[in-house]
Amino acid sequence: MILSTTIHGISFKNPIIAASGTFGFGEEYNELYDVSCLGGISSKGLTLRPKDGNEGIRVYETPAGMMNSVGLQNPGIEAFIRNGIRNMRKFDTVLIANMGGHSMDDYVTGAALLSEADIDMLELNISCPNVKSGGMAFGIKAAVAREVVTEVRKVCQKPLMVKLSPNAENITEMALACEEAGADALSLVNTFQAMAIDIHRRKPVFNNVYAGLSGAAIRPIALRMVHAVCKQVHVPVVGIGGITSAEDIIAFMMAGATAVQIGTVNFSNPLAGKQLATELEALCQQENIQDINEIIGII
Q1: What is the distance between the alpha carbons of residues 57 and 66, in angstroms, rounded to a whole number?
Q2: What is the rounded CA–CA span in Å between residue 228 and residue 49?
Q3: DSSP per residue over the chain, as a string?
Q4: Strands 192-195, 210-214: pairing kind
Q5: CA 297 to chain CA mean position, Å
Q6: pTM of the predicted model over 0.85
Q7: In this predicted model, which residue has the larger pLDDT, 187 or 133?
Q8: What values do phi and psi take at 233, rounded to 5?
Q9: Is residue 128 flagged as an active site residue?
Q10: Which of 94, 146, 160, 184 could be stapled to 8 by a disulfide with Cβ–Cβ 3.0 to 4.6 Å?
Q11: Among 37, 128, 156, 284, the one annotated catalytic
Q12: Residues 6+ positions from 200 with CB-CB distance below 8 Å
């Protein structure tokens, strides 16, 4: 049975990748199970300079999911290059560096630094707010996303995967713009913008008012978006959004995804990565799937 899959020349032992922002740099989870069983790990979201993250409540449980407003707390790209990469290289899995930024300069400078580092792939998070454009995320308008991907592509020698926001004006137009600008792969979707109110305090739960919704609640919408994008682009797509079972992994791959990322499920079940890897192999045997690549995009 073949569970391995390939994204722009990078081989993954299986299609399961730990999603950025839900797995740290892998060390804490490795205390629970050998994270080398995963196809890949996408690092905590990195920024050019260290960030403390948002104040107040950062994580809030919702029916069939969760909301978060962490604020990209991270040690910064240079510290990651000095220490984080060495620690992540202890794991026998694909190392993906996830990077965000609040200006074009942030993205280009950060991508240039990471391109020279010992990573396998760069995942570009374009859901970050552009401080020079009134706080609107780079990933809302296709023209803006095209510009940032074009500039990053000029300095990035590593395989470049662009992570798309479901809050984009048009997700397929956004995907096509990123592909045309030089993306080697796409990952989608990031969290949906959402809100929670504490009626007792008569205030929003989060200091920033709005936060990102993830988890099983978004899965059907994420699946639809992945399917729509896969029908339009020619680069590999990594599906993200509420994946909690081996059946979900198969569904996203049948919709066109070459691999998937698991995120929120790591909080509700810290052993999810190991369990899903085992369950995926068993399900493939049950469904007589000899090569998992054969089911990609059959729907």
Answers
A1: 12
A2: 36
A3: -B--EEETTEEESSSEEEPTTSSTTSHHHHTTS-GGGSSEEEPSPB-SS-B---SS--EEEETTEEEE-----B--HHHIIIIIHHHHTTSSSEEEEEE--SSHHHHHHHHHHHHTSS-SEEEEETTSB-GGGTT-BTTTSHHHHHHHHHHHHHH--S-EEEEPPTTSS-HHHHHHHHHHTT-SEEEE--PEEEE-EETTTTEESSTTSEEEEESGGGHHHHHHHHHHHHTT-SS-EEEESS--SHHHHHHHHHTT-SEEEE-THHHH-TTHHHHHHHHHHHHHHHTT-SBGGGGTT--
A4: antiparallel
A5: 20
A6: yes
A7: 187
A8: -100, 165
A9: yes
A10: 184
A11: 128
A12: none
**284 token code pair:** 């493939």
Tokens of 282: 């068993």
Query: What pLDDT, on a 0 to 100 scale, did the predictor assign at position 128?
Result: 79
Length of the chain: 299
Mean pLDDT of 213-225: 98
Structure tokens at 211: 């936060």
